Amino acid sequence: MLLAIEQGNTNSLFAVHDGENWIAQWRSATEPNRTADEYAVWLHQLLSMAGLELRLLDACIISSVVPQSIFNLRNLSRRYLHAEPLVIGENVDLGIPIRVGKPAEVGADRVVNALGAHIAYPGPLIIIDSGTATTIDVVAADGGFEGGAIAPGIHLSVEALHNAAAKLPRVALRKPQRVVGNDTVSAMQSGVFWGYIGLIEGMIERIKAERNEEMTVVATGGIASLFYDATESIHHFDPDVTIRGLLEIYRRNNSSRP
């Protein structure tokens, strides 16, 4: 069985694939200093709750934007799965061209998303991934990654307002029914939420105009479901873009295995 690990700056996803289906998924807060042994204890408990065993895992693929965590995740695979992991950006053939000036600087999550979206949706794509940062990336019709834009994530904006302005409270992220708020909290919620909708819609239109072509827009990431319901500029909300890309990369690099 394959253990796929997708680690962002804020949250990490651990998913198990049995060769045919994803059979378990768990999320945890990203802790860069967590050791391989701590990961193993945590994973063993979750596997047991799902009726699975750690010894059944015999392959691993890792996508991480947190360099200091990769050492411990690699040791988790070597020590407890007895397998040398595939690490995006180190020892993996992605199978798609990276058409940017400095390919080594592109985050692992962005190239994995490019492949995961390309195999599910035809034609040129815009991928919006909402996490700690909001990335808006372009994928050509042949699957090539062609760059994009990076903006602060919506949660960072909420925290920045609270931390930088003494009288502004910390507010929950939600979709306001009205653009014009009638108190401080509703005004902040509107500014953050509808401001991000404006950012997304504006960036999509500018990218399409710059490339002079129609493009399919796919949103992924935890917050993207809120955006999808609030704008017609996003065509698909797909929470499985990243793990689909990880599975495809694993299969391309291990053609003899399921």
Automatic annotation (TrEMBL):
The keyword ATP-binding applies. K(+) binds at D129. ATP binds at E6, Q7, G8, N9, T10, N11, S12, L13, T132. It is found in: Cytoplasm. The active site is at D109. InterPro entries: ATPase_NBD, Type_III_PanK. Pathway: Cofactor biosynthesis; coenzyme A biosynthesis; CoA from (R)-pantothenate: step 1/5. Keywords: ATP-binding, Coenzyme A biosynthesis, Cytoplasm, Kinase, Metal-binding, Nucleotide-binding, Potassium, Transferase. The keyword Cytoplasm applies. It comes from the Bacteria. GO terms for cellular component: cytoplasm. Substrate binds at G107, A108, D109, R110, T184. Its cofactor is NH4(+); K(+). Its EC number is 2.7.1.33. Catalyzes the phosphorylation of pantothenate (Pan), the first step in CoA biosynthesis. Belongs to the type III pantothenate kinase family. Homodimer. NCBIfam families: baf, PRK13318.1-2, PRK13318.1-6, PRK13321.1. This is Type III pantothenate kinase. It comes from Nitratireductor mangrovi. The gene is coaX.
